[in-house]
Design a protein that fits this description.
single chain; 263 residues; mainly alpha; two-stranded antiparallel ribbon; 2 strands; 62% helix; globular; MlaA; membrane; transmembrane helix; lipoprotein
Length: 263
Amino acid sequence: MKYRHYVMIGFYILILFCGGCASTKKHEYGMDEGDPYESFNRKSYWFTDVIDRNILEPVADVYIEHVPQAIQRPVSNFYRNLAYPNVALNAFLQGKIRQGFEDTLRFVINSTIGIFGLADMAGHMGFKENDEDFGQTLAVWGINNGSYIFVPVYGPSTRRDITDLPVSFFTDALFYASYAISGPVLVPILFLRVVDKRARLSGPMKIRDQSALDPYLFVREAYLQQREFLIYDGNPPADSYNHLQLDEFEEDEIIDVDDDAKK
C-alpha cells in the first residue's frame, strides 16, 4: 500500500532530525560568512526544539529509564544495520573500493549471522563500522558546503549535505522491507527507530543544554565541525576548522580535500 511509504517518509524525517542535533563546540564561526539565513534558521531551530522537548525527549527518557541495556543495544544494532547500505554505496563512490567491499560484507554478515543486525557479529570478526554519506561523497568530489541551513524538523545541514536525504532514504533496507510489512507492524518499527535514535543522543543533547549559552550556535558549530571531521576520515588538516568554506553553493566551487579523504 502506498500509504505505508508516506508514513515511513514522515518517520524518516524525524530520524534525520535527531541525527545532527548534538556534538561539541570547538571554534567560533562568523555568521555573515556561512549563515546568511540565520533569521530563518533560528526560527526553524526553535520550532524543531519545541517538538523535541515536548514529544521526543520525554519518550526517549522513559525508554532509557525502563528498557534494559541488554535490549537497547540489539535494537540500536538492528536499525544501524538497516541503514548501512548507504555507507557501503558511498564508500564505493568515494573511491574507497576495499572499504566498500568490507562494508558490504559487514552488512551481509550482520543481516544473516547477526539475525537481521541484532548482533554485531561482523564487528567481532574485525569489520569495523564506518560512517559515510552522500554529503561526504560530494565533498570528496570537490563540491563546496554551500550555506548552512536548519530545515524544520529535519535539522542542521548545508546545501551540499542535504542531498544525502533521498540517497539515504532509498538505500535504507527498511524502505524495501516495507513492501512486505503490514501497516500495523511497520508503524511501531518506525516509531521505535525514532525513539532509539533520540535515546542514543540523550547524553550529548543534555551537555548542549547545560553548557551552551546559545544552543543554536552550539548546534551549528558542532554540526559543521562534525562534518569536517567525517569528510577527512577523522584526520582533518590543522587549520580546517578555521577555514570552513560556506559560500553560496555553486557547481564550479571546490574545496581542497587531502589524500586522506580520497583513499
